[in-house]
Structure of CTP synthase:
Amino acid sequence: MKYVLVTGGVVSGLGKGVTASSIGVVLKACGLRVTSIKIDPYLNTDAGTMSPFEHGEVFVLDDGGEVDLDLGNYERFLDIKLTRDNNITTGKIYQSVIDKERRGDYLGKTVQVVPHITDAIQEWIERVAMIPVDGKEGPADVCVIELGGTIGDIESMPFIEALGQFSYRVGPGNFCLVHVSLVPVLNVVGEQKTKPTQHSVRGLRGLGLTPNILACRSTTALEENVKEKLSKFCHVPAANIITLYDVSNIWHIPLLLRDQKAHKAILKGLNLLGVAGEPVLEEWTCRAKTCDMLQDPVRIAMVGKYTGLSDAYLSVLKALLHASVACRRKLVVVWVAATDLEESTEIEAPDVHKAAWDQLEEANGILVPGGFGDRGVQGKILAAKYAREHNIPFLGICLGMQIAVIEFARSVLNMKDANSTEFDANTTNPCVIFMPEGSKTHMGGTMRLGSRRTYFQVPDCKSAKLYGNVKYVDERHRHRYEVNPDMITELENAGLSFVGKDESGRRMEILELRTHPYFVGVQFHPEFKSRPGKPSALFLGLIAASCGHLEAFLQNPIHVKMQTKNSLTNGMPTSKVYQNGIKNKHVNGSHNIYSNCNGVHA
């Protein structure tokens, strides 16, 4: 097994996750099998209990692991399926060591950070690196490890020590360190400054790790004299100093690495030059170029609770982008804070209220993503009502589906107090209830998590057609509440059709309004399995309906499957995400850190 370690220096949010993913793409394009590990130095066992405002979205894996959003980047870029163990946290490591101590595995020993914690880290990396993640038998050729945080952080010290020992243990030719650092340009002098990177590398070397490659983040390509200066003071060959400058979309990053021969530097460090070939990246090249050629827009209103931080909905944004590429449309994401749609905002801030409704009414489609808590719920209900009554394409995910059920019960069945017991425990019409198997005392890892099977009840429904007329689908879940099975008959008699259910038939998974152009709610999270070349079926349906092309897609399921490939091979302009509407207060995110256009993603 060969290992590539990606570390970061100077500041956080430089894009280590995208860099690690792009390194994996280039190595995979060279014919190697690649797996990934993300190390998060926080004490949480996993990301499941963390606020999206703290750490962005919680990405969910097939095995139910609630992990850092960077694992979503790995899965999308490399088209692999990771496990919960591919995300290492300080909490997991310490918990495993303490469990061993309690069992008596260290009997007679004083348990310490060195060697017990550091040994546990190394053993975890070696064990997880051997797990196949690409659907093939046997371990991968290369494991790309991303160390979260910044060099010098107190909480990452045990991992730095462990990785230093690990690099020595696996030996030269099996370990390559890529250090991502910042080369800022001061407006006063307009000169690329190398001192921050010099200090970062000095700190890294002082901790026992020597970088083989420097990946320098800057607004423009590094000047030759700057490379020479960095080479001299950081003891890294000039050929191994790579510039990751601002580009229009992140699909250009693997191409930047290839064009600067980063793959040769990595392969040389891993003694794989004679084994791997030249990277084949025609599809990536075409995808990156087509994303820069914007044409007809499609406006999707994202009605949510965390609109101030786009990382909170990162996978949803990516799934929308993948679908818009397939439909050859420029994606315009309009952020609408759910609370701004509510009557209380109309009283307190009428201008904000009017602006939010204007944005909603101008949208071609409406999406209500998942979430927790009662803040903004009424606004989401109003958005679902507007979509239903005005025949606007609508997709509700998790809470978004539950919101659609509540709105339908209130407006159509005249159940004025219809609600979820999450928001009103005393409602007389509980449309959404707490799942019987859930825990009300422990929050972490107690939801219905991971890949679950949904069986289609109505073969000719829109959802089944979009999925290719299959009998069932496996999608990832993350929820504590579900639609009340005792109210299904009444809801269906009024026109709400539950076209997808679990194996028991009592848990509702997919709902549709048959008389609506596209009104779909799903209990699962289809965004987690969307890929650049394989867009999620339901997101594809939303974009197609918003463009007025849904009927063509439904009449030809094969056309749905081939659409993405065609859009990347016929040279037609496709799409890009514009974040208009409410200003995006994006902080510390990795998905658009390479963009030099305000609010442009890929």
